[in-house]
């Protein structure tokens, strides 16, 4: 049997993405409380995510969403990592409020944000160990949050995943709006 790498690449990338999801799940969590959600999207969902990112540009004017929306179309899949909002009761003040009770609704507990960061780091380290390309994208994460794909998550980041001869998520040029 001869198996060409091109014929096995997509399934390999999906398997790596599954391992990235496991790495995010098993990453250390503040106080040992797991409020992280992780999902993988492919195909039509990537297109839907891209379309949502494009629509969001008209609302907030952040033009880099156009570049990123085009860029994720080069991904084999996209990993979404988010956290639900839940104060951890430490009264640490890292969120900007002296106590958890004083924290305003919608202001994430700092530990929640740290947990997402650690999960992202674990997922990306796994990808690097397995030699697939990634980039953490706030823009795509915000669009996934808008789509509520990770139910009730207040902070979502996206990680597009690819295995090609050159990482498509770096050395990117700004994409201009078209008036068509």
From TrEMBL:
Any one GO MF annotation of this record: oxidoreductase activity
Domain of life: Bacteria
InterPro entries, A to Z: DUF2148, Nitroreductase-like
Segments forming a coiled coil: none
SUPFAM superfamilies recorded: FMN-dependent nitroreductase-like
DUF2148 domain: residues covered: 106-172
One Pfam family hit: DUF2148
PANTHER family given in the database record: 4FE-4S DOMAIN-CONTAINING PROTEIN, CONSERVED PROTEIN
Protein name (record): Ferredoxin
Organism field: Bacteroides acidifaciens
């Amino acid at each position: 049997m001869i198996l060409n790498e091109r014929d096995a690449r997509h399934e390999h990338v999906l398997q790596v993405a599954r391992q990235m999801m496991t790495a995010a799940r098993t990453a250390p969590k503040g106080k040992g409380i797991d409020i992280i959600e992780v999902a993988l999207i492919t195909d039509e969902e990537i297109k839907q995510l891209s379309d949502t990112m494009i629509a969001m540009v008209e609302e907030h004017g952040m033009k880099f969403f156009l570049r990123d929306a085009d860029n994720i179309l080069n991904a084999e899949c996209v990993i979404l990592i988010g956290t639900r909002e839940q104060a951890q009761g430490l009264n640490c003040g890292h969120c900007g409020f002296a106590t958890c009770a004083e924290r305003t609704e919608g202001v994430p507990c700092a530990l929640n944000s740290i947990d997402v960061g650690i999960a992202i780091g674990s997922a990306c380290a796994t990808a690097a160990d397995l030699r697939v390309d990634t980039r953490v994208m706030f823009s795509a994460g915000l669009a996934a949050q808008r789509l509520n794909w990770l139910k009730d998550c207040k902070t979502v980041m996206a990680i597009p995943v690819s295995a090609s001869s050159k990482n498509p998520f770096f050395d990117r040029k700004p994409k201009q709006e078209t008036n068509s």
